[in-house]
Every structure is written in structure tokens, then in C-alpha cells.
Design goal:
2 domains; alpha/beta; 10 helices; two-stranded parallel ribbon; Rossmann fold; 292 residues; single chain; eight-stranded mixed sheet; disordered N terminus
Length: 292
């Protein structure tokens, strides 16, 4: 015999069954959350954010460029190393590089930039990179950039009022932070991300690691406070940082601002080679606009 149930009894049964399922699901989620919290507390974040290389593969002289080694110190006593490459103008391009390698891996880019735009270039290694001392961290990189800007302003041949910040990838986040604290002539961000949390979501879309990351590099929260002419360049075919993140930063930034979509199928690291004349025109036009 099959027992019949009244509508009330059936609803109660379904509710009990559903409650049991939700209870088991809640318990499972609690376990997952506890594991993620544990991961967040123990996660060696630096190993997933910074990829420094110590050995320099060359110097600007390998490409026929006159340069000077520059050693300087941060306000917390870390010794940093950089190169000063004089140009044809008194405008200085303060280069804040990405999260991998060191300044030696930017030699070809430095040479092309120097030839095409004629700017003086100051490029340095963050703490833990190249010949610089220390170990990288978010607060440390901010200190490094501030020390580099102070150093540039005192270099013979550099005009302290005509320093343009150029940050690529991770360096873009460092440049944004510096530009919110110090007056500069202009700000150029190439292939920028909105925040480390956003990039963690890109890398691990089904694992909510973001809330447990101590490192922020939250450019999206900072760009509304910029008070400097801004140029953002990003490739729609960037395989590392989604193009949409560059667009999001641009939308959040105040005027005056420009955006250039890098063409030529450029990836994350080869825009200066594949971006074509339009890439260099965008940079040249922006620098020219700073003089008006």
C-alpha cells in the first residue's frame, strides 16, 4: 500500500529534505572556505607575483647607447641600481618595468624608444631585481619608485619639471601610486591591470582567492584621484592582462586622458615591435600634447 500524504505533509517532507541538502552544502562550503582562509594566510604570494632575475644580460652600450650606471638608496635603506640614458630632449622617461626579469631584458625596447622619441630614459630595478638589493613587496616597490623619481630630479641634464612616468603591466600599478603622490609631467600606462585581486580571478576564475590576498596594487581605486595627463595603451590581443581591464581603468580616470588600442596582434610584451606606426604615433602625440 502506498501511503498518501496531505499537501501540508508533502511540503514538510520536501522542506526537511531541502534543509538537509542545504545543511550538507553549507557544511561543505564552510570546509572549502576554511581551506581558502588557510591558503590565504600561508600563501607565498611573492612567488606568484614577482619573477625577478639577478643576472644582467647586457647594458645599453651593447646597442650603441651612451649611458651611466646610477646607484641610489630608498628611504628604508635599500640600494637600487639603474641606468641613465641621455636623449635629444630634456624630457625624461621614468621607466617602471613589469614583474619579470630585470632592466637588461628591456634593452631592445630602450633602444627603439630612444631612437623614435628622443627622450632621456631612466630605468631601474626594483628591490630584489637585477643588481638592486632587498626583496620585492608592494610597499617596497612604491618606495623604490619614489626614490627613483627623487633621483631623476637631481640628475645632471634632467629637467625635474619634465618627468613622464611610464609603467608597463605591474609597473603601471606602481606608476599610478606614484602619480597620486607626486606631481609629474605625464603618465603613460601600458597593458595595465585593475588590481591583483582582479588578476587572481582571471588566473583562478573558480577559486575565490582575492579576499585572502594581502597584495593589492589596486589601480582601479586610485585612478579617480589622478591629476595628471594620462595615456593608456592596451592590446585587444594581450594574452596576460585582459583588454577590458585597461578600458575599465580608462573609464574611471579623470580628464585629460587618451586611450590607444594597440594593433598588429601585439601581445603583452611586444607592443613596441608589433604595434606599428600607430603605436609610436600615439606616444608621440601624447608627449606633444604635454607641451601645449
Amino acid at each position: 500500500m502506498v501511503a498518501r500524504s496531505t499537501p501540508g505533509q508533502a511540503d514538510a517532507g520536501r522542506a526537511a529534505s531541502s534543509g538537509g541538502g542545504l545543511g550538507r552544502l553549507g557544511a561543505a562550503l564552510a570546509v572549502v572556505l576554511a581551506v581558502l582562509v588557510g591558503i590565504g594566510l600561508m600563501l607565498p604570494e611573492d612567488q606568484f607575483i614577482y619573477f625577478p632575475s639577478r643576472a644582467l644580460v647586457g647594458t645599453p652600450s651593447n646597442l650603441g647607447l651612451a649611458y651611466r650606471d646610477v646607484w641610489f638608496e630608498t628611504d628604508d635603506g635599500v640600494a637600487l641600481h639603474g641606468w641613465w640614458v641621455p636623449g635629444r630632449t630634456d624630457l625624461t622617461w621614468l621607466w617602471l618595468h613589469g614583474n619579470a626579469g630585470n632592466i637588461g631584458h628591456r634593452l631592445e625596447n630602450i633602444a627603439v624608444l630612444h631612437e623614435r622619441l628622443g627622450v632621456s630614459v631612466f630605468i631601474f630595478d626594483y628591490r630584489g631585481y637585477g643588481q638592486s638589493g632587498g626583496r620585492p613587496s608592494e610597499a617596497g616597490l612604491y618606495r623604490d619608485a619614489a626614490a627613483a623619481l627623487a633621483q631623476v630630479r637631481g640628475l645632471p641634464g634632467a629637467n625635474p619639471e619634465r618627468v613622464v612616468l611610464f609603467g608597463r603591466s605591474l609597473g603601471a600599478a606602481v606608476a599610478v601610486e606614484l602619480a597620486t603622490r607626486e606631481p609629474v609631467h605625464g603618465l603613460i600606462l601600458e597593458s595595465p591591470f585593475t588590481s591583483v585581486r582582479a588578476m587572481a580571478h582571471v588566473a583562478f576564475p573558480y577559486v575565490p582567492l582575492g579576499p585572502f590576498l594581502r597584495t593589492r596594487f589596486d589601480s582601479l581605486a586610485k585612478v579617480p584621484g589622478l591629476r595628471v595627463p594620462l595615456l593608456i595603451l592596451h592590446s585587444p590581443t594581450d594574452e596576460v592582462v585582459p583588454y577590458a581591464q585597461g578600458e575599465e581603468l580608462f573609464a574611471a580616470a579623470p580628464e585629460p586622458k587618451r586611450f590607444h588600442a594597440i594593433g598588429g596582434g601585439a601581445g603583452h610584451n611586444d607592443s613596441y615591435l608589433r604595434g606599428g606606426e600607430a603605436y609610436w604615433q600615439a606616444l608621440g602625440d601624447f608627449l606633444a600634447s604635454l607641451e601645449r
